[in-house]
Design brief:
Helices cover 26% and strands 28% of the residues. By secondary structure, the chain is an alpha+beta fold.
C-alpha cells in the first residue's frame, strides 16, 4: 500500500488545512490479456469467440430491459453486438466477457474504463448481465474478481461506479457491493434521446480491506445451503459516517 496510514489532517505554514500525505506510485494500466479465475465464473478479454454466447444471453426479443440504461440499443444481430465490443476496445476500455464455469459460456460483460493510472482512479461500467447471471452468486463473484484485480494487482486507490439516477437496480447493486454514494451530477449526459442525471459511487483503497472481507465471507461455500441459497446477506455496506 502506497497510501500513508495516517488519517489525521494537518495544516500548512499558513494555517490552512490540507489533505493527508500520500506516498504515491502510479497504478498499472490494465492488461487486455488478463484472465481472472473464480470458482463459479471467470472473466476473459471479450472477443469474437464470445459473440455468439453473448448474443444468446443478452439479445433475445424479450431482453430489451437489459439495455434500457446502457448506451446502446439491444443488438438485432451478432454483427451489431460484435461492433459494440470492438468499439469499447477502440475507446480505450478493457472489456471482459463473464463466463460461467459450469457451462463454459459467456453470460454477460463488463468494462474497466476512464483509466487514470497517474491519479489511481478507474471505473467499472458497461455492465450487462444475462438473465441467468442476474442476482446470482456468480454475478457477485464477477464483481469481486474485478475489484481484487483493480486494488490488489493493479494498485488503484479509487474504484468508481456510475449509473443513471433512475436505474434503481444498479444503485442497489453498488450499495450492496460496498460502494459509497458520492452525489448526483444533474443533466450530465444525453443518451438515446433522453436526459441522464448520473449518480456517482466509489470505493477507495482505505475502504477496500473492509469490503474485501465482506465479499470473501459472503462468497464462502459455508454461506450457502444445499440449494445454493445464501445464509447471510452480503454486508459490505459502509458505516453511516466514514473518515475523509
Amino acid at each position: 500500500m502506497r497510501l500513508s496510514a495516517t488519517r489525521t489532517r494537518s495544516t500548512n505554514d499558513h494555517g490552512q488545512r490540507i489533505g493527508r500525505p500520500v506516498d504515491w506510485t502510479p497504478a498499472r494500466v490494465p492488461d487486455r490479456d488478463t484472465v481472472l479465475e473464480g470458482r463459479g465464473v471467470r472473466l476473459e478479454p471479450a472477443g469474437a469467440q464470445h459473440v455468439d454466447d453473448l448474443f444468446a444471453a443478452l439479445c433475445r426479443s424479450d431482453d430489451d430491459p437489459i439495455w434500457t440504461y446502457l448506451f446502446w440499443e439491444r443488438p438485432r444481430d451478432r454483427d451489431e453486438l460484435a461492433r459494440i465490443l470492438d468499439a469499447s476496445r477502440e475507446a480505450g476500455q478493457v472489456t471482459f466477457a463473464i463466463v460461467a464455469s459450469e457451462t463454459d459460456r459467456a453470460v454477460g460483460f463488463c468494462s474497466l474504463m476512464r483509466v487514470d493510472p497517474a491519479m489511481g482512479s478507474i471505473e467499472v461500467g458497461g455492465i450487462a448481465f444475462g438473465r441467468q447471471l442476474q442476482r446470482s452468486r456468480a454475478a457477485t463473484e464477477a464483481m469481486a474478481l474485478l475489484m481484487r484485480h483493480v486494488f490488489d494487482d493493479l494498485g488503484y486507490r479509487r474504484y468508481e461506479w456510475k449509473c443513471d439516477s433512475l436505474n434503481a437496480p444498479s444503485r442497489r447493486a453498488a450499495i450492496r457491493l460496498g460502494f459509497i454514494w458520492e452525489g448526483r451530477f444533474r443533466n450530465a449526459v444525453v443518451y438515446k434521446g433522453r436526459n441522464r442525471d448520473t449518480d456517482w459511487f466509489s470505493i477507495t483503497d482505505l475502504e477496500w480491506p473492509r469490503v474485501s472481507r465482506a465479499l470473501d465471507a459472503w462468497l464462502d461455500d459455508d454461506n450457502f445451503d444445499d440449494m445454493g441459497r445464501q445464509r447471510t446477506p452480503l454486508a459490505a455496506r459502509p458505516p453511516e459516517k466514514t473518515e475523509d
